[in-house]
Write a structure and sequence with these properties.
CATH topology of the largest domain: TIM Barrel
Helix content: 25-40%
Shape: globular
Number of strands: 15
Structural class: alpha/beta
CATH class of the largest domain: Alpha Beta
Distance between the termini: 45 Å
InterPro entries: DgoD-like (IPR034593), Enolase_C-like (IPR029065), Mandelate_racemase_C (IPR013342), Mandelate_racemase_N_dom (IPR013341)
Number of domains: 2
Largest sheet: 9 strands, mixed
Strand order of the largest sheet: 3-2-7-8-9-10-11-12-13
Number of helices: 14
Protein name: Enolase C-terminal domain-like protein
CATH architecture of the largest domain: Alpha-Beta Barrel
Order of helices and strands: EEEEEHHHHHHEEHEHEHEHEHEHEHEEH
Pfam family, one: MR_MLE_C
CATH superfamily of the largest domain: Enolase-like C-terminal domain
């Protein structure tokens, strides 16, 4: 089996509403690049990458001279062909590699007639539990805003009823810490039997991170995720706060993982199949974490169904996956895969059982959302449509005003 073609298509898939985060916003849609890797036997493997547009499509097309005639089974050679660690200082191809690796694993599974999880060691679980992913958001087309503690609790109650979540993750860093502490405490009071996570995306100062962390110590926390930036900042928080710390920002490769093992800053490593350059590096990293008694969870970077499938196959094979996975997925209105969005049941999603990744493209949906991308274009992830001219600093001091309800037009 040899690679003969690579096709990349950028799509914009609508979200229920614009989602606010500490560094900007998702402006009412996810822009993703869908990758199709065709082999000489007619099989097509699927990959996915965040962001997109003409530049991403051109970047994937530019990989053809590297990959024409490459055997998808040769995954280690693939890593060095695309993301040689020295060359990557200049070409920064980790996320491109991830999308191609997804597609190659999909091709291998289709060729052998087995699901991707069988190629990764065999599944230990048939479904993967997920946390709710709670965002402050703007209102849009029948979907209410989430800004106040009462609105947040009501939104969480609706998600719990619809999907069965028992773990709730609040994406913070949008409003002043004291206000978000009020929101977090409201969640704890409303759902006393459920577990909580707080993630301000590393924009708090060390002083605010310590203050917030100490203020939540008595709550039913799973972990505090990236309260401040950097391994050294996390070490300061970890030494003085009795809540486990997690990160997806500064342990995203093996060098950083080694540093965290030698001088622990984070107790839980959130493994992202895109950030780490594929599913297989995440499996390797999870093995290191198992050895050194670090927790692991599966991280979300704004997935459609293809990347969600990689997250599910990863979660299926990790013996030390003791935390529910993250997913933005329930925030989407639709998907680009056949059958539409994968369903939650009791807070979990079943691991696909078909060959490869176990999902296939719905060509009509891809065409529809490729056209929507051409109509709307991209958006600046690090800007907020409700705060023109604003940008985040680290640490941030210019938080949004929680008393103001803002209407945005995107």
């Amino acid at each position: 089996m040899k690679i003969v073609d690579i096709r990349a298509t950028t799509v914009a898939v609508p979200l229920e509403a614009p989602l606010r985060h500490s560094n900007g916003a998702h402006w009412g849609r996810f822009v993703r690049t869908i990758v199709e890797v065709e082999a000489d036997n007619g099989l097509v493997g699927l990959g996915e990458m965040g962001g997109g547009g003409e530049s991403a499509e051109a970047a994937f097309s530019a990989l053809m001279p590297y990959l024409r005639g490459h055997d998808p089974f040769q995954l280690e050679a693939l890593r060095f062909k695309i993301a040689n660690p020295t060359a990557s200082l200049y070409n920064n191809r980790t996320q491109l590699l991830a999308a191609i690796e997804f597609a190659c694993i999909d091709l291998i599974g289709q060729q052998l007639g087995v699901p991707a999880s069988d190629l990764l060691g065999g599944r230990l679980r048939d479904s993967v539990p997920f946390a709710s992913y709670l965002f402050y958001r703007y209102a849009a087309e029948g979907y209410s805003e989430v800004r106040t503690p009462d609105q947040l609790v009501e939104h969480t109650r609706e998600l719990k009823a619809a999907h069965g979540f028992t773990v709730h993750k609040l994406k913070g860093g949008v409003f002043p810490p004291d206000f978000e502490l009020e929101c977090y405490r409201a969640l704890a009071a409303a759902f006393p039997d459920d577990r909580l996570r707080y993630d301000p995306n590393a924009v708090l100062s060390v002083a605010e991170g310590l203050r917030f962390g100490r203020a939540i110590e008595e709550l039913n926390n799973e972990y505090l995720e990236d309260p401040v930036w950097g391994l050294e900042g996390l070490r300061v928080i970890r030494e003085q706060v009795r809540v486990p710390l997690a990160t997806n920002t500064v342990v995203v490769n093996f060098e950083q993982l080694a540093s965290n093992v030698l001088r622990r800053a984070a107790d839980v490593v959130l493994l992202d199949t895109t950030f780490w350059g594929g599913i297989r590096p995440c499996v390797k990293a999870a093995g290191v974490c198992e050895t050194f008694q670090l927790g692991v969870a599966v991280h979300s970077s704004g997935e459609l169904g293809i990347q969600l499938a990689t997250m599910l196959h990863l979660g299926a094979v990790l013996p030390n996956l003791t935390y529910a996975a993250d997913a933005h997925y329930h925030q989407l209105r639709d998907d680009v895969i056949e059958g539409g969005k994968l369903a939650y049941a009791d807070g979990a999603i079943a691991v696909p059982t078909g060959p490869g990744l176990g999902v296939r493209l719905d060509k009509d949906r891809v065409a529809q959302y490729a056209e929507l991308y051409r109509e709307l274009g991209g958006y600046p992830y690090d800007r907020d449509p409700g705060r023109p001219g604003w940008y985040a600093q680290v640490p941030n001091e210019r938080f949004a005003d929680p008393t103001v309800s803002v209407e945005v037009s995107i």
